[in-house]
Structures are given as structure tokens and as C-alpha cells.
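User: Predict the complex.
Assistant: Input components as received:
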Amino acid sequence: MNKNMKILIVDDFSTMRRIIKNLLRDLGYNNTAEADDGNTALPMLQNGNYDFLVTDWNMPGMPGIDLLRAVRADPRIKDLPVLMVTAEAKREQIIEAAQAGVNGYIVKPFTAETLREKIDKIFERLEQQQA
Amino acid sequence: MNHSDEDTAAIFKEEQLARARELVQLMEAGDEVGAGRLIEELGQTHESVLFSQLGKLTRDLHEALNGFRRDTRLAELTRQDIPDAKERLNYVVTMTEQSAHRTLNAVEESLPLSESLAQRAGHLRAEWSRFRQREMSLEEFREVSAHLGRFLEDAERDAEKLRQALSEVLMAQDFQDLTGQVIRRVITLVQELEDNLVGLVRVSGQRLAKPEEGGHAQTADQDGEKDSRGTGPAVSGTSDQGDVVSGQDDVDELLSSLGF
């Protein structure tokens, strides 16, 4: 897995962005950027050559589920792997995210180990699909 | 007082005045029986007007009370949302307490480790400078060398413990996001409650206007919007308890059943 991959972290709480950023750094991913909601994130993704998106769901402005749909609807970035890290825990929401094409789903509160595991799994799977 | 009320009052005044004039005439004519009957009549008319006014007030009050009962959103707020808000705020208290303890535990673990590392490093530095100045016998040097070996082993192990403790402190800060989402939800509720209470005061204070229909439509819209936007952490003991996963294992299971 490419440790230099460019990752966008989207969450309206700066504390959570910092936590995720630090956890990613701990895992060896140093190339990260941040956005506080979908409206800010989408143009960054469209113009920034990102390799991976980690997003919250519940945000003012554009929520994460809409950002996910916008990503999948844009031919330039539709294949971007997306990991949702959110407190939204209703089954119907998880199914909704899966149907919208999410690559992984983590419920808050989560552990550093869960984050590592899900990221590894997402990229393992992508490599298998490409092979 | 509206137009028909004014008319009624004017007619009533006119009638009373006519009766008063008649009364004067009767008394001047010395008709005491007729005058007595008229005085009684005057009193009765007054009472009947009083009763009809009272009746009208009662009807207004009744209608206003029915209006409150029809305002189901307010009823729902008091039945469901307010008790839920109490549980949500309890969740905030619990989460912040847990995070504070997690952080304090990590700090209490770390402080003795860093103190011991600093102390032993200081001791070894003094020995090392004696060695560099050739003030140390071979026997002493062997001993210091053994100390140094043990110190390096412990430093490696303790540095890892410190890293873990710092990670724990990092993760403990997740409460700010989780409680923040819950607090925002309670703020929205307080706002809605305020709007509804203002509407209630308007209805009960004056019968100027009915509670605005627009306000209700807006509330319904907000609810719809809130759902797609997400609602934050599910708090147990509230209306959140529905089809909610209990943790990451549940999520993984659900996703794998969907072919993930």
C-alpha cells in the first residue's frame, strides 16, 4: 500500500479531524488534508488528485452521504475509495451508505486498530479487483 | 371589541335610556307599582347582558384550550423530546466524565515513567562524564556498563508505554465530537420549544391570530432534513433506540451480509 497516498479527512469537528490525522500519521500516512463539510471537500477532491477520502456523515452544509453520492456521480473521481467514520448507527443508514457505494464504514467511538484494519481491507480489496 | 359588539352596546344603551325616561314619567304620575316593575326589568336586562358576556368569555377560553390540545407538536415535545433531551444531556455528562478519566489515567501512568527515565538518565550522565574524564576504575565501569544496558532496555520499553498513553489521550478526545453532536441536537430542541411556547403565549394572551400554520410546516421540513443530514450518536433510553447497531462488529456483520 502506498504510504504517500493523498488523503482528505472531512469532519465538521476539528477535534475529530485532528484525531484521525494523528492516527493516520501513526499508520505512516503523512499526506493528509482536511475539510469541514461536503461543500468544502468536493471542489478539493475534484481538483486535488486525492487517493482516499475519510468522511463523517452528520455535518452542516453538505452531509457525508451527499458527498459520497457526489463523488460517485463525478466521472473524474467516481472510483475514489471512501471510508465513512460516523456516529450514525442506524441499520438503514449503513445500508444507505453501502448502496451509495461506500468502501468502508466505521461507527464512532472507534479505536486506532479498527481504523487500521478497515483501511487495510479497503486497499487489499481494491488490489484484488485490479489484479 | 368588534363592530357588532359596538352595535349591540349602543342598542342596549338606547333601550336602557328609554326605560329610564319611562321610569321618571311613571314616578311623576305616581304609578308606584308600574315604577317597581320597571326597576326590576332594568336590573334583569343588565344581568342578562352580563351573563351573555360571561358566556362569550367562557366559549373563548374553551376554544383556546382546545387549540392547545390540537397543537400536537407541543404535546409531542413534552411527552417525548424533553425527556429524551434529559437523557441526551446525561449522555454528555457520562461521555465527558469517561474521557476525563481516560486522559487522567494515561497521565498518571506516564508521569512516573518519564520521571524515572529522567532520573536514571541523569545518574548515568554523571557516571558517563566521570568515565570520560578517566576517573573510573575498570570494576566501576563494568557496573555502569551493566546499568547502561538495563537503562536502554527500559527506555525502549517505557517509550513505547508513553506512546501508548499518548495515543490513549488522543483517542479520549473523541468525546468532543460525539457530545458536540448531541448538544447541537438539544439546542435545536430548545429552539423549537421556544418557538412553540411563543405561539402558545400568543394564542392564550390574545385571540389575535391562530398559531401560525407555517411554523409547523417548517418544523416538519427540518425533521426531514435532519434525517438525511444524520442525527448524531444514538443515546440509549431515548427515541433513538430503534434499529441501531450496537458497535463495529454489528456494522461489519451487516456489511458482510450485503456482500462487503
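The beta strands of chain A are 7-10, 32-35, 52-55, 82-86, 104-107.
Let me know if you want any component modeled separately.
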